[in-house]
Design goal:
Strand order of the largest sheet: 1-2-3-6-11-12-13
Structural class: alpha+beta
Helix content: 10-25%
Shape: globular
Order of helices and strands: HHEEEHEHEHHEEEEEEEHEHH
Length: 319
């Protein structure tokens, strides 16, 4: 929780105030006593005209960032692979071998279907270059579950849709007991249940790698990497960002949650993991639902519209 609080403070206070306090003063340019200052020229409206700073002419290569002398033999990246599936879209991080994010659109109707996870198997994603894939052997005896970002229960449309959720590009290492198999599963069920209260539910899920304050007072990011050789990063936290809307209401409901990747007691209220959307954006380096105008009256808190509590183990009864 210490890591989350640090990002809340960072997003609220930012760094601008600190810069203003330490910004060096600029010495005034001395004015010659022998030559009187000339007033600046004025425009047609009687307003002063000041000389515009020199602007370097940009050539056509700005529209094609590889069309220059520095990248003559190729652009090294980074590349975020965009993956569009039947029931989700995802962005994949080649360095960490985890999704950056996975986005879903849930309704009461599209949660129905014939898909059955009993016949689904975890598979490496052939859509990704081999050298950047998460591999099945990475998880073998790692001590971590293969945690879905788009849950299998959200993709019951048909067998193919269900199978796509078992691709390792939709998976990240999660603590099993007390998290993936319990608290996190209850949160996934909570998101599905929102379709009873809203016509459309949009959910974006992904990993976080947050710093933790060390004994020497400094903040460091530390996470395990699983596989032999090490290949897949283990996130310190996971987020879910939710936008829910009703057809008869102009305002949308927004909620953001970030949970540590560790065992969480079922008695812990979900409200402990509610964060300002801006805090999750800052931590993840992402912008969520940027087509929504975030002004008073247009956006309301999700937890002001529904009771943000979890019904633990209820998801087991709904399989």
């Amino acid at each position: 929780m210490q890591r989350l609080l640090a990002f809340v403070a960072g997003s609220v206070f930012g760094g601008g105030a600190i810069y203003a306090l330490v910004k060096p003063s600029v010495p005034a340019t001395p004015v010659s006593s022998t030559a009187p200052q000339q007033p600046p020229p004025v425009n047609a409206h009687g307003m002063p005209e000041f000389q515009q700073p020199f602007k370097r002419q940009l050539d056509s290569s700005i529209n094609n960032p590889t069309d220059n002398e520095f990248l003559k033999f190729g652009n090294p990246g980074p590349v975020s692979d965009f993956l569009l599936r039947s029931r989700y879209a995802a962005s994949y991080n080649r360095a960490l071998r985890n999704p950056n994010w996975v986005a879903e659109h849930l309704t009461q109707n599209n949660l129905k279907g014939s898909g059955d996870r009993a016949s689904s198997e975890f598979k490496e994603d052939p859509a990704l270059p081999g050298q950047f894939r998460a591999q099945l052997k990475d998880y073998y005896r790692s001590g971590y579950d293969r945690g879905h970002m788009c849950p299998a229960a959200d993709a019951k449309k048909d067998t193919e849709s269900m199978n796509e959720t078992f691709l390792l590009s939709n998976i990240a290492p999660q603590v099993g007991k007390g998290f993936n198999r319990n608290y996190w599963a209850s949160l996934e069920s909570f998101v599905r249940d929102l379709t009873r209260s809203f016509d459309d539910v949009y959910c974006i899920t992904g990993p976080l790698y947050l710093p933790e304050k060390q004994g020497d007072g400094k903040w460091r990011v530390s996470y395990e990497v699983i596989g032999t050789p090490p290949n897949v990063a283990v996130p310190t936290h996971f987020f879910k960002v939710i936008l829910a809307r009703r057809n008869n209401e102009p305002a949308v409901a927004l909620g953001a949650f970030a949970l540590p990747n560790k065992e969480i007691d079922n008695s812990t209220p979900l409200s402990d993991f509610v964060l300002p959307l801006e805090s999750v954006e800052k931590a993840a380096g992402l912008q969520f639902f940027d087509k929504i105008e975030r002004k008073q009256g247009a956006v309301v808190s999700l937890c002001s519209k529904v009771n943000c509590t979890l019904e633990h183990d209820s998801w087991k009864k709904k399989k």
